[in-house]
């Protein structure tokens, strides 16, 4: 059991509700910063060392809180932004508790986990618990859009760290944690053609939409499930009117890869589609965003430690590989032992049925806290 008293799941849920009822879309820096203000006040009140890095015009701030101590640190990092726009809380996704499920925008991905991280660090400081290593907590504003402003802060704080813990949501019915993830990336494809009357001057036009359709099929053809590679083209746009040969079209591309070698292959193949021929110009921008998060012996040792702690709290902790990326990808590729998916169980990330199994808040919070206390 952790030396720190975590509290009951009911108590944790009551405070978590306040986080969920603050809508924090990634695209609204002021809203994200409002929740960071709440977290900063709570951490300052118990003596955390605080640094707050201003965001860009499109992203909120990054909050860094540290417990006293020297030497390699334990990093725990979570994001407070969500994929949900303002208004869903008052509309289709109100906060509500139905039996053992608590619903609300972003509660599973990943306000429950980020709140648990905040709560553990706050209570360690409030209760004066001695930890074997000093702790650094990061609460970030932009993970759901690729961590453009927070990535540098995460990597800088993690340099030389003993371990990194990521309280992204636990996965599946069994609440698995994560020991590896695919790398993720994206491209924007822009196609320029030539407009013409679709009836009287058809042969004078160059359809950007037709050219884009051919490109999409080539990109889709890079998917290889046996190799663990997937691509997806969406959204797609193009054309103006049905009687005008479309002079412009484009799409976004998402890709997932299991290794840096596969990333290099896919990136080269997609970038190789750019160029100009027969009156069509193709421009492609983008690349790999999150490098693959490999499973390593050091990461598995962290997992075995967490699994043993979870068993003492009465539940099994399976491990899994995930196709989606997280901020753990950045630290794992640095060679730092990283354990992910340590948040609350539930389901429905990025979906209207998003929820957590709220009775898990206390035991999973206790496991997180004991890891923070006892990693040597």
UniProtKB/TrEMBL annotation:
Give one Pfam family: Peptidase_M20
Domain (Peptidase M20 dimerisation): give its ranges. Answer: 180-276
Statement: the UniProt record of this protein carries the keyword Chaperone: no
What is the protein name given in its UniProt record?
M20 family metallopeptidase
Keyword set includes Iron: no
Specify the species.
Answer: Siccirubricoccus soli
Q: Which domain of life is it from?
A: Bacteria
Which PANTHER family does the protein's record reference? ACETYLORNITHINE DEACETYLASE, BLL0789 PROTEIN
Protein keywords: Hydrolase, Metal-binding
User: What is the phylogenetic placement of the source species in the record?
Assistant: Bacteria, Pseudomonadati, Pseudomonadota, Alphaproteobacteria, Acetobacterales
